[in-house]
Amino acid sequence: MKALIVEDDADLRRQLKLQLEQRGYTIEETGSGREALYFGQEYEYDIAIVDIGLPEVSGLDVIRQWRAEGNTVPVLVLTARGDWQDKVAGLEAGADDYLAKPFHAEELLARLNALVRRASGHASPVLKFGPLELDTAARVVTREGGEVRLTSYEYRTLEYLMLNAGKTISKAELTEHLYHQDYDRDSNVLEVFIRRLRQKLDPEQSLQPIITVRGLGYRFALEDVRQA
């Protein structure tokens, strides 16, 4: 997942970046509301964390302008503890959730996880497609009840594809949203991850959960069991 952190407190911004990177997020960060507006116009993110009290352009104005421009990225606003007016203002500006400072890292991660899931149409933390299940909270994948052991990169690739099931995801999009390294688009790094995933998820080659769309990218093709 690709996250944007907008926080003018450099120490807190650094802490947030570390916590999210440890959870597998790729991060872009800024302490400027003006720069946040630019990032929101030029790049796509899976989630944004926005502090209300920013210099020059407030966090509320950043969110309002994003929404006015059609940017639907899920936004978690950071507010001062007990300041219910800020919480209300953030939600009315277009934020999706709020978190009061100081906060525990696990609560932050849980709220981000929920926002990303809901944006993809999944209320439950467990994504179920045929015999495959992916628990986004525990970060565990099972097939017919048995755990499928994946590396961190393999898990993140599968999670992104399952959250976007049915959509064709280009190699460039996967690279941008999942990996810290700036892999060359012509390299075989993603192909290696996809090949390993296919072998682990479908050792008998009976499911074909990940389809290659020639010249375009990859698509997770199993049907959501909620709609089966």
UniProtKB/TrEMBL annotation:
DNA-binding region ranges: 124-222
Q: Which Gene3D superfamilies match?
A: 3.40.50.2300, 6.10.250.690, Winged helix-like DNA-binding domain superfamily/Winged helix DNA-binding domain (1.10.10.10)
Does Phosphoprotein appear among the keywords? yes
Q: Does the keyword Transcription regulation apply?
A: yes
Please report the stretch or stretches of sequence annotated as the OmpR/PhoB-type domain.
Answer: 124-222
What residue stretches are annotated with the Response regulatory domain?
2-116
**What is the official name of this protein in its record?**
Two-component system response regulator PhoP
Pfam families in the record, alphabetically?
Response_reg (PF00072), Trans_reg_C (PF00486)
Q: What's the domain of life for this entry? A: Bacteria
What does UniProt give as GO cellular component?
A: cytosol; protein-DNA complex
GO molecular-function term, one example from the UniProt record:
transcription cis-regulatory region binding
**InterPro entries named among the record's database cross-references:** CheY-like_superfamily, OmpR/PhoB-type_DNA-bd, Sig_transdc_resp-reg_receiver, WalR-like, WH-like_DNA-bd_sf
Residues annotated as carrying 4-aspartylphosphate in the record are 51
One Gene Ontology term from the biological process aspect of the record? regulation of DNA-templated transcription
- Alphabetical keyword list: DNA-binding, Phosphoprotein, Transcription, Transcription regulation, Two-component regulatory system
